[in-house]
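Task: encode each sequence below as C-alpha cells.

Item 1
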Amino acid sequence: MTHKYTIDGMTCNGCRSHVEKILNDVEGVSNASVNLEKGEAVIEMEQHIPLKVFESALESDGGRYKISSPNDTVKEASLKENDKEQKHNASSSSVYYCPMHCEGDKTYDKPGDCPVCGMHLVAQPSKTAAVKESYQIHGMTCDGCRAHVEQTLNKIKGVEKASVNLEKGEAVIEMKSQIPLKVFEKAFEDDGGSYSIAVKGDTKAAARHQKRKEERRASQSKSGTFYCPMHCEGDKTYDKPGDCPVCGMDLVPMASNSADEAADDSGYKLLLKKFWIAVAFTIPIFIIAMSEMIPDNPLYEWMSMKNWNWVQFVLSIPVVFYATWMFFERAYRSIKTWNLNMFTLIGIGAGVAWIFSVFGMLFPDFFPPQFKTESGSVHVYFESAAVILTLVLMGQVLEARAHNRTNSAVKELLKLAPNKAVRVVDGIEETISIDDIQLGDKLRVKPGEKIPVDGSIIEGESSIDESMITGEPVPVTKTVGDQVSSGTINGKQTFVMKAEKIGSDTLLSQIIDMVNKASMSRAPIQKLADKISGWFVPIVVLIAIITFVVWALIGPEPSYVYALVNAIAVLIIACPCALGLATPMSVMVGVGKGAQNGVLIKNAESLEALNKVDVLIIDKTGTITEGKPSVEKVGSSEGYTEDEVLQYMVSLNQNSEHPLADATVKYGKEKNVNTEASGFKTTDFNSVTGKGVTGIINGKKVALGNEKMMEEAGAKISNSLQANISEEQKKGKTVPMLSVEGDVVGYVVISDKIKATSKKAIADLQEKGIEVIMLTGDNHDTAQAVALELNLKDFKAEMLPQDKLKAVEELQAKGKKVAMAGDGINDAPALAQSDVGIAMGTGTDVAIESAGVTLVKGDLHGIVKAFQLSEKVMRNIKQNLFFAMIYNTLGVPVAAGVLFPVFGILLSPMIAALAMSFSSVSVITNALRLRAAKID
C-alpha cells in the first residue's frame, strides 16, 4: 500500500535526501520518495505502518523534521493540535474517530490506527472546547438587519454566541465545536435569502450575493408570497403586497432580496433621494405657514386659511409617509422593545404635531375658542412636523455618507496582493493563480512586479520597495536568503523566491486581519442625545398623561377638550427637534470648519474621542518627516570643490532610477547644475544592486555609493573626510560617497527632512498635557536623531505593524485614551485600534480609510487643529443640549397648566410649537457660531 505524508522542516536538497534515507531505513518500508518543493513524502509499505513509527524515526534524528498525514476533511493544524493534546483530552474525551471517515461516523474508545485505511485515529474535541470564527455578512443595511442576522445565527444549534458588526459587515461566532459553513448558509436561505454568509477573505462572496439578489428580483413576478422583513410575526406570510400589520414596514416578496450589500452606497443614495423629496415639499409648507406673520397676508387673496391648511396637509403627506416614514417605524420599535432613543422622541413629537394638525383641520369645533383663529379654523402645525423630519433626515444622510465607506480600508489592502504569479517547475515557467501557490513552490518575480507571497530569495538579488510594511521610502536590497513579503514591489532585477507563507499566513493577510479585528473590537460611543432621551422620553410622556388625567378630572368644561389640548401642548413643546439637531448640527458645521482648515473628520465619534485623548502616537516617515529623501548638503575633499563633486554625482545619477539618485539630480537642478554644458558626460554606466553606481566621466573611473561600493572600486579615503561622513551617519543620515580614479573626493548627505511645522506642533500638543510618543519602522540611530531634534522623550524604532498595534493596546490597557497618527499601510492596524486614528492625506488610501481623522495637507500641525476643533465642537454640542432642554424644562410645566389656577395662563399648541421652533433656532444659531471659530 502507498501513503502520502507532509514533511516540514526541509530547506534544501540535502535535507530532502536525508529525510528520504531515514524513511527508507524504517522497517517495512518498500520505497520512500520525498519531494522538496511540495514538502511531501510518498511511502510504499507492505502493510500499514503507524504514523508514530515515522515520527519516532525523525525525532531520533534530532527532531529537525516533522511528518504528518495530509487530510482533506480535517485541517492539518487541527491534527497536530489533537496529537499534542490527545493525552490531555483522554480523561475528558475517550472517543476517537478516523479523520478519513472510512466507516462513516463510527467512533472508538481507544487511540490507535483506523482498521480500514490505517490512518492515525484522532480524539473528538471535548465538549468544553470552544471555537471562535469570523465571517463576512452581506445584505445588511440597517441596525434592524444587524439584529435580525444576529438573532438568526444565535438560533443555530451549537452556537454559543454570535455578535454582528453592521459597519464592517462581519460576524464573530463562538461555537461549541466547528460548525460547517453550509449550516449557516442554509439558516440564511431558510430565512428568506436576504442575507448571505461567507468565510473571511472570500473576494467573490459579494458578487455571488449580488447575483442571487438579481435572480430573486427577476422571479418576483412569479411569486405570490410576501413577508415582513422584520419578521414581526415570525414566519407568517401574506398573499398580497402591502404593509406589515405590526410594524408597518413594506411587505416584500418571498423570492426577492430586500437588502443590499453593506459596502454598497445604495442605502445612501436612497436616503439622499428621500431628503431632496422632503425638501421639495417642506419648503412650500414652511412658506405658507410663515406667511401668517405678514400683515395682510397676500396668500389670502388667492384662498382662505382653511384651504391653505388643506394645501399644507397634502404637501406634508409625501414627507411623512414616504421620505421620513422610517423614523416612525424606528420610534415604534424603540417603544416596543423599550430601547428609547432619539427616534422615539422624533416619532412622538413630529407625529403628535402632524396628527394634532389633521384633527384640528377636520374637527375644528372640538377645540375651545382660544385655540382658533379669527376665521374659526384651528392653528395647524404641519410646518413643524415637516421641518423636524426633514432636518433629522439631513443628519441621517450625512451619517450614511460616512458609513458607506467603512469597508474601503480592507479593499485597499486587498488591492496590494497580485492575482497571479509565475511558478518555476524543472526550469519551465507557468503563470498560475495566487490561490494555487503551494508551500515550497519556486516563484519568479520580474522587475516592477508585486511579490505574491511571503518567502525567501533563492536565486538573484534586487531592491524591494517595502514601504507598505515599514513605511520607509528607500528600497531595501535583498539577496539570497533574505526574506520578502507579499504585496511589496520588486525593483529592477529578476529573482526567484521560495514560497514559505501563503494564504492567510502572509504578512499582508495578517495586516488585513488586524485591521478588521481592531475595527470590530472598538465599542461604539453612545450619542449624547440618546443618553438624554433615555430618561427624557418616559418623563415627558408621563407628564402628558398626568396632565390629561388632572385636567379631565378637575379642569373647567369642556374638561376633556382642555385635557387633550394641554397634553398635546406638553408633547409638542417637548418635541425633540432641537435635541435631535443638537449633535448633528454642531458636527456638520464642525466638519465643514475642519475641512476649511485641512482636517477631515469621518464621524462624530472621532470628534468626541479626540476631546478625551491623553496620549498621541505618531509615525515618523511621512508624518513627522516629508516621507521622501532629500539632499541636505554636499561635502568635498581638498582638490575638489563642492560644485565639481555635485557635477560628477548628477552626471552619474541621471542614468539611475533609484530614489536617492532622483533626490541628488533634483538637488543639482536647484543648484543650476548643467552637466552637458560643463562637459560631464557619463559612459559605461553600471548599477550595482545594494552598493551604488559606476561609470566613466571624461575618461576617469567614477563610483558613487556606500562603503561596499567604495571597497569594490578600491577607493581610498582621507581621515578628515571619513570623520565628516561618520559624524553624519551617527545622526541617522544616508551618506553616499564619490570616488574618482580610486580616491574618495566627496559625499552627499541625504535624509528624510523633518517637516517645518512638526517641532512646533509637537510642542503645542505637549503644552496641552498630551503625551507624544514616536513609533517608526526606521533604524534606532535615525529615530534617535529625529527624537532629539523634536524634544521627544519617548520613541521606539524598528516597529512592524503588529508592534505598533501592540503598543496601542498596551496603553489602552493602562486606561489611556490613545490617538494614532500615521500615513502608511503599516500604520493601518494601529489606526483602527486606537480610540481615534489620524491619517496624513499624503499617505496611503488604507491609512486614510482606517482613520477617523485625515489631515489633507499632510501637515502635523493639523493634529493641533483637530484637537482644537474637537474641543470647540464638543463644547458647542453641550451648549446646544442646554438650549434644547431649557425650553422643555421651563415650557413643559406651563404647557401642563400649572400657571392656570393663579394667572389663568394656558400654553396653546401654537405657542408650544413656537417655543419648540425657537429652541431649534437657538441650536442652529449656536452651531453656526463654529464657522467663525478660530482654529490655528
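Item 2
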Amino acid sequence: MVLRAGLLALFLLSSVGVATGYGDRSFNANQATSGTGDSVDTTVILFITTTHQAGQSFTPTRTFVLSNVTLYVTNVGAQGDALNVTIQGDVGGLPDGTTIAGGANVRSGTGWLDFPVTPRPTLTAGRAYWIVASNGAAQGYTWIHSNADVVAGQSVQATNGAWGTPTSVDLTYVTYGIPAEPEIAVGLAVDRRSTPPGGPATFTVYLNNSGFRPAPNGWVNLTLPAAMSVVSDNAASVNGTSTGPASWRFGGVRNGPNAFAVTVTVNPAAPGGTFLTTIAHLDYTDSLGASQSSSTASATVLVALKPKPMYLAHDALPVGTWDRLVAAPPTGVLEDFEGDGAAGMTIGSAGANWTLVPAFAKAFWIRGGVTATLFFDAPNPAGSTATVNATLYDRGTSGTAVIASVATTVSVDGNAGTFESRSLDLGIADHLVLRGNITELRVFKVSGADLWLGYNRSDLPSAVVVTTSTYISVDRVDLLDARGIASTFSSQDRVRLQANVSDPFGTGEIASVMGNVTAPDGSAAATQATFLRVASDPGGTWALYEYSYNQPTDSGAWSFLITATEGNGVSVTAAGTFTVAFPVLDLTVTEDPPAPKVDGVATFTVGYANTGTAKAATAWMNVTLPSELVLVSDTTGGLRTGASSWTIPNVDPGFHAFVFVARVAGAPANQTLLVRFALAYSDAKGFGWTAAPRSLELAVVVPPVVPEPPNPFLFLLLGLVAAGGGAAGLWVWRSRKPAIEEAFLIHRAGVLLYHVSRSLAGEGDKDRDILGAMLTAVQEFVKDSFKYGEGQELNKLEFGDFGVLIERGKDVFLAAVLAGTGHEAEIRRQLRRTVDEVEAKFGKVLDGWGGDMDP
C-alpha cells in the first residue's frame, strides 16, 4: 500500500483521538483516495443521503476488538448534519441489516472523519463484515473511493433501502482496535548507568499488555549476574507472587501498562568496570490457557568507574605551545617542545594547550573525579614555586564548557633535569562530551616562577585522568553462515561470529576481542578464541572483528560470550545463543516372508527414522535388487526416479517407513538373494549425509527335485506326466545284438510311470529329441495295444538304429530300447519278471487307476 504524505498526515491526526485502549492500532484499511465521487466513476455511486446508503466490506485477518472506524468523506450539503456508520454482518455478499456496532460524527468539507463505535464488538478473523454509512439529509455526504480494486473487499450502494450489485472499487476507510487476545512483550530498564561495589540498583520490569483480554497466567524470571542479588520487589502491585529468589507468577495481566520494581545490590567484591547484565524472561498464556510466544529483555549496570588517562604527547612540530592528548602511553623523547632552549614545555603566564587527537569517536561521559598527573622541573637551583591553573575544556559547535578546573600551588626542587610528579585534583565532573568535540587541557601559571613540564617519554607519563562510564563497547553481534545472517546452523556449517566494536578513543584503543563458545551440554567448545579484525570505519569509530567456529557437532542451543578489551584494561562482554539442528537418518529393513518361494513375492518394509532435530529437505533411497527379484509395487510417497530408486522430500523428525513388493522370478545356485539398501539425504541448507547402508540376504525356497523311486504309486503322487502323438508306420521287425539303453515303465493309459537311461538322456539336444520321439512312439503303441486287446501279437518295434522290446502286463507295459541284436529271449524273461514284480506289489493301485493325473 502506498500512502501519500498528505493523507498520512490526515491519518495520523485523525488517529490521535480514536485510541480507546492500550495497544489500539489499525487493522483493515484502504487509504488510497484517487477517486472523488460520481464524476470520477459513474458506475460507483458514493452518495450518502436520505435515499442512499453506501457500504464497504472487509474481512479481518486476525480477531480484534473494534474501537473506531475512520472514513474519508465530503460533506456536500448542510455542514452540520451527522454521518452515521454501522458495522453489519454479511449475508450473500451484502450487508445483513443487523447492527453490530455504530457511531456518528460531523465534519465540514473533505477529510478523514472518526466514528468511535459502541458497543466495542469482537470481530472474528476470516469473517466478512460491512461498514455501512447513512445520512438523513437530502444532500448528505460523499464517501470517497479509490477508483480501483485496492484491498480485499467490495463496495456497494443502496437506493431507498435496496442494495445494488457490489463492485470491486474500494471505498476509503481505516478500522482501529485492539487484538482480542493478550499480547505482552517483557521490558526491562535500570535506574542508573553504574553503581559502586556494594551499591544498589533498581530494575523496572514492564508487562505491558496491548491485547484486549487479560492474560490469566504470566511468569517472569530475572537472570541476575552472580555479583547481583535481589533485595526487594513490589510485584504484588500488579498481582504478582514470588515463586523463587528472582521469579514471579502473575494472575490476570490486564490491558495497558503494567510494571513492577526490583531492587538489587551489587556484591562489594565486584570488580570495578564490570558490566552486569540482567535478563528478564516472560512466559504467558492467552485467555484460553494456551501458551504464547515468550520474550526476553536485558539491562546492564556498570560496576564503579575506571580511570581513563589522556597522555600529553608531542605532535612532532618543531615549535609551538599547542600539543596533543592521546590515549596511548608515551614512547617518544623529551624535547624542547616550544623552542625556548629549555627541555619540555615552559609553563608561564601564556600557558600551553593540549588537544585530544583524534577527537572522541563517540559521546564520552566524564563522571567522577578528574586529576592531572604532571611532571615539573624548574631552572632555579634553589627550587621554584608557582600557582598553576589546569583546566579541562569541551569545545563544541555550540560553545565551550569547562569540564573541570583547579588552581593550585606547585613546588619543585632545584635539581635541573629531574622532573617531579605532581597530582592536581580538578574536582568532580559530570559532563558528556559529544562526538567530534575538541577536548582540551590548558595549563598556565597564575603566579610565581615559570616551570618546565616534561612529557612524551615513557618515564614522564604526564596525563589528565578522568573517570568515565563510557568504555569500549560491542555495538552489534551478527552470526552468519555461508549465505548470510543466520540463527540456526547445520553441523556442517561454518559459524561466523562478527562483533562490531567501538571505543570512544577510536579503534586504535581496542586492545583485543576474544570469545568463548559453549556447546549445548555445557562443555567449552572454544576458550579465549581470538577474533580477527576484518574491517574498520575509515573515520576510526568502529572495527569489525570475526571468529569462525567450524562444524558444530551437537544439536541444541549453543552460547557464546565475546569480550572486548581496551587499552586501559576495561573489558565489556556481549553474549548470545545460536541453534544447531540437523537431520540424522537411520535405515532399517525387514522382509516378509523370510523365505519366499520361487514365483512367490517378498514384501520389504523399509524404515528410515529421523532422530535428528531438523527435517531432511530431501532423501534419496536406492535399492539394489538382484536379477531374480522384480519390483511389483511400492508405497514410498516419493518420486520414483529409477527402477528401484526414489526421491523423498521433507523427512520430518520421527519414524517413517514404506513398503515395496518384489516377485521372486528365480533363485541362484545357492538359493540366497542379496538385496542392498542405500539412503542419502540433505538438510535445508544443502549439506549432504549418508545413512549406514543395509544388506539383506533373502533365502529362496526352491521345490526340491525328488529322486524317482521304483514305485509307480509315488510317480502318481509326484505327477510326472508325459503324453505324445501317434506312431503309425514306425513299427518294423529287426534282429541285432541287444544292449539295453533305455527302459520305460508305462501304464496302460499311456502314462509314463518310470524311466531309466544308460546313454541317451541328457547327452545333447539330438539324443534328447530321439528319446522324446521314441517315448511318443512307445506310448502310442501301448495305447493301441490295450485298445486291440490281449490277443495283439506286436511286442517289438524298430526305431532308427534301435530296437524296442515290449513286455505287456495286466496294467503296465515295460519297454526296453536295445542297441544291436541277440539274447532277446533272455532279455524278455527279465522284462517279464520285472512286470510281474511291479504288478504283484502295486496291482491294486494300478488296476484302479485310469491314468488321471488331476489331484
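Check on item 2: Confidence is low (pLDDT under 50) at residues 1-19, 35-45, 706-737, 760-766. The first strand starts at residue 25 and ends at 30.
End of task.
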